[in-house]
Design brief:
about 70% helix; mainly alpha; about 0% strand; 9 helices; about 280 residues
Amino acid sequence: MDNRRLPFGGLEYAALTVLLFFLLIGFLAPWIMPYAPDQINMEEVLQAPGAAYLLGTDPLGRDILSRLLMGTRISIGFAVVTTFCTMGVGLVVGILSGWCGGKVDAAVQTVVNIFQGVPSFSLMIALAGLLEPGFVSMLIAIVATSWTGFSRVVRGEVLRLKNSPFVEGLRALGAEPSFIIRYYVLRSLAPVISVLFTIRVGSVLLSAAGLSYIGIGLQPPLADWGLMVNEGQTYCRTYPLLLYAPGACIFFLCLSVNLLGESLKRRFMKPDWLGK
């Protein structure tokens, strides 16, 4: 049975609903936050949930709900920007490798194999640790360890398209390679890129949260979910919301993105493109 003809099931619709909810919250965060996310109030330290603070406060008296809302905006924004950068690098390298072939392809694939032979999260930690902790260093670390998956899939599709009768006909008519790539190859790659983008967003969310959690990602006083988990683990028994609230946000957002990505992969991608 062709999976591309199957309608979305209840699980996919639930995942889409959760994802749209987070996107809406992230967009509206500056206008719906009851307090400034970095507003310190030492007179309201570790308050229990109540009318004034719906989810309570942290050890510095900051409103947990406001920090979760702003964390949604920061986490989703960072994941989208980083995934676009990863996709851009992988797309350029994959097209270059697949279209040029020969020694260029061999050299590129050697680099790809080297990167894929190293545990990605270990390399990510090493790169982020060498740079000054912050947005840029985390972006560089994640992009440098994530572009190979994009490039491998794009290369395989470019190789298939390059040898297709249609492209051979365009060459016979005198079409330049840049014209073929821009007006035919990139359009044919659009569904593949869309699916890979969705899948990668979930991985970036987890990687960013992990780097922030161990202290080499985003830095305080930013309202980042990974930072909130790090700050809340000390109080997990007495004030569990400090830990479980950001942890639940990470879990449900990543789960919804991954479910949608896997559903799209089954419908629009061939199993061999991802090595499965």
